[in-house]
Known about the structure:
The chain is built from eleven helices and 19 strands. By secondary structure, it is α/β, with parallel strands linked by helices. It folds into two domains: 34-118 and 191-260 and 353-420, FAD/NAD(P)-binding domain; 126-186 and 263-350, D-Amino Acid Oxidase, Chain A, domain 2 (2-Layer Sandwich), CATH 3.30.9.10.
Amino acid sequence: MKLRRSLPRPARYSGFGLLRHALGGAPWPPVWRRHDLRDRYDVVVIGGGVHGLATAYYLAANHGVNNVAVLERGYLGGGASGRNTAIIRSNYLTPEGVAFYHRSVRLYESLAADLNFNVMFSQRGHLTLAHTDSALRTMRWRAEVNKLQGVDSSLVGRSEIGSLVPHLDVSDRPRFPILGGLWHPPGGIVRHDAVVWGYARGADAAGVHLHQDTEVVGIDVTGGRVQGVRTNRGRIAAPAVVACTAGWASTVCDLAGVALPITTFPLQAAVTEPVRPFLDTVVVSGTRHVYVSQTDRGELVFGAAVDPFPSYSSRGSLEFTEGVAAHVLELMPALAPVRILRQWAGLCDMTPDFSPVMGPTPVEGFYVDVGWGTYGFKAGPVAGETMASLVATGKTPDLIAPFDLARFTDGRLVGERGAAAVGH
Length: 424
């Protein structure tokens, strides 16, 4: 994705400039600016995470719409965008999902150059393990769907898995022997805060107003059309409002009278002390409900499935720590001495078919980009690109047409549970 020639770009520093700031005490300019809240914008985006910031950025970059306000009740990236494990992949199960996430991976590949900001995208590969015959059949199914969509995925056997991840026990002795796996080379990890900061800096440079500590407390609707929003800092008139919230999508959309088929669950994760790099790929076990990757600093990041009960709590639990540690050790017993340093939880809005809800709503001018479950961060770039196109042109892009709200009443579900339940 290339920027328009007329779009301002954030400042670039030479080596001498970086040294002067680091050693000479010269003040760093802010990454984005503070603005007074206008009483009217062309577009209001609710949510200052990667989806909201990407939508605002692409509205300005691709469509020249920069009279845009992003409203975040806390700080930018403080919600789900800062509470995930930053895994990027496109090896989904449905043709609609594969095409959608494939576009997002392609955008991530050029994102650092497009934003002039290093997002540290490391395409180290994504390996999903199969421990049963039924899991192996699902992997084969996903591999064939991926190939038909032009995505690099293939079914691999024990010997290749042993070469990719030598610390895995690929013998037939473990309680859960590895029968094979789905190998997806384009997958990997990214620095989630860098993605947020890059989009925020790019949107600010294009003229978008980023408002932190600004909570939306009401959405004004008259005659079936959105008129604007009410915030803790005052009212804003706007002909277009985009809800890009995660964890609180139902409560925000209720303000506009739009009901969503969403249930919110906590999703926990943990990180260990740094150890010498040994894990070059992302490893997922759907059977054991666990996944693990290693950061560039050496920490191991663990995650699992969502908690078994709906809640808005973002606190960790001992039950999660014990469970995820046990499942990781079933795969890699040598990690027993490694200490867990911290754990956290984020909120996931789960839909009945494990696919997002994107597009217009029965309220004219009110759009949603919600229901991302456990896989919203990897979709940030493509969600922003397509939602910006929808708002600017009034036409729903083909990539997001299958994810409309009406599919739940029309019986057009896009079932992604087989690829999204734990394989973040």
